[in-house]
Specification:
single chain, alpha/beta, Rossmann fold, Alpha-Beta Plaits, 3 domains, six-stranded mixed sheet, four-stranded parallel sheet, 17 helices
Length: about 425
């Protein structure tokens, strides 16, 4: 089922004057951290700041004039839409872009900028899957061609040119591992196919967000499934259902399929920025965030991480920092039931808080005729283990509490 190498090589020639041949760079910081040679395939430097231009352009140019005469349509969480929009502008084909209402404003703005007067953006639904349903319905009603972001052989062949460039640039190096994000599975299908032909001993590791394990579940169940709900934070790699073609290919090419918590991905985003001034979106950091789960296996090995994109909205950085700190145990939120007696707050400050604990949020409403009153408290810690003494002290002094990170509904509502 894997894509033929000649088809990927043909796509590479097709893309030569459109997509950049992005660099494969040895990252010194990560190489020292993992005692390995860690290379980054910098698709964040691509012309639309992600690899998606490759699949979109290759798909469109393999359509007949008859198929595109009424216009073409795509659905996307943002990156495919930008590649699609630029392709429409270059080829002078009218395009309609369906994106979730929750798409970061930066991505919507970029789509309009790349497409100029050749595209129309329509925000529909809360997830990619919702937008996909609107887009395909519009295609049927108007007899238009749908340019799929992943479940299409020509799209997959275009994404496979990422693998071709990796092998070409590291032709004198034995590549032991390639880590890459999986959303619908287009990138992994294409890159994995090319490696299967040209470097079959390389282990291909797929990485999904913990909150959107669509490929992991499909592989576990032996068939494509649709998840009931997903966490949408890592929007570039969060779909309820992977592609049918992509699933069949990934069954053959994946050595392992990892799930990475959203908070850990946020930590990788901040580290990349702080140590190497590399700005990536959450999906772009997934491959690097996964390295901790393979730190023993990759020692002394040659490893490539595909940095799939950098379309990050600056407005999201505060949330990224917050999620990172919570994951690392440096910040926590609690609902604490305060005894409604004089001096209860003083007890909390003097006897329960640690010397380095810092209250960053405190909301309390005293209620009459009740023995306790609830407070929402956010606390930052100097070290990740500092939260345990705090919780021990609350129990010791009779303060009952709920830890919000253990209750997703309350956390989303209050924080």
């Amino acid at each position: 089922m894997i894509v033929d190498a000649n088809k990927i090589e043909k796509a590479y020639q097709n893309l030569k004057n459109v997509a950049k041949h992005t660099p494969v760079e040895l990252n010194n910081t990560l190489s020292v951290q993992y005692n390995a040679n860690i290379y980054l395939k910098r698709e964040d430097l691509q012309v639309v700041r992600s690899y998606k231009i490759r699949g979109a352009y290759n798909n469109i140019t393999n359509r007949t004039k008859e198929e595109t005469k009424n216009g073409i349509v795509c659905a996307s969480a943002g990156n495919h839409a930008q590649g699609f929009a630029l392709s429409c502008q270059l080829l002078q084909i009218k395009g309609y872009v369906y994106m979730p209402v929750t798409t970061p404003k930066q991505k919507v703005k970029q789509v309009k900028m790349f497409g100029k007067d050749m595209i129309e953006v329509r925000l529909e639904g809360d997830t990619f899957d919702d937008s996909y349903a609107f887009a395909t319905q519009f295609c049927t009603q108007n007899n238009m061609a749908f340019i799929h972001p992943f479940d299409n052989i020509d799209t997959i062949a275009g994404q496979g040119t990422v693998g071709l460039e990796i092998i070409e640039d590291l032709k004198n190096t034995q590549i032991d591992y390639v880590f890459m994000a999986i959303g619908g599975g287009g990138l992994a299908s294409g890159v994995g196919s090319y490696f299967k032909h040209k470097s079959p001993n390389t282990k291909i590791i797929g990485v999904e967000p913990s909150g959107a394990p669509s490929m992991k579940e499909a592989l576990n169940q032996g068939k494509v499934i649709t998840l009931d709900k997903i966490e949408k934070f890592i929007d570039g790699a969060s779909v309820k259902r992977v592609g049918d073609i992509n699933f069949e290919i990934c069954k053959e090419i994946l050595h392992d399929m990892l799930l990475v918590p959203e908070g850990k991905t946020c930590t990788s985003i901040l580290q990349l920025y702080n140590t190497d001034a590399i700005v990536v979106e959450p999906a772009g950091a997934l491959s690097i965030a996964a390295l901790d789960y393979y730190k023993e296996q990759i020692k002394g090995k040659n490893v490539v991480c595909v940095v799939s994109g950098s379309n990050n909205d600056i407005d999201r950085m505060q949330e990224i920092k917050e999620r990172s700190m919570i994951f690392e145990g440096l910040k926590d939120y609690y609902i604490v039931n305060f005894p409604q007696r004089p001096g209860a707050l003083r007890t909390f400050l003097d006897d329960i808080l640690g010397p380095n604990d810092d209250i960053v949020r405190f909301e309390y409403l005293k209620k009459t005729n009740k023995e306790t009153g609830a407070a929402l408290i956010g606390i930052e810690f100097k070290a990740s283990e500092d939260c345990q003494p705090l919780m021990n002290n609350m129990t010791k002094f009779g303060f009952t509490f709920i830890r919000l990170k253990e209750n997703a509904v309350l956390f989303d509502y209050l924080v």
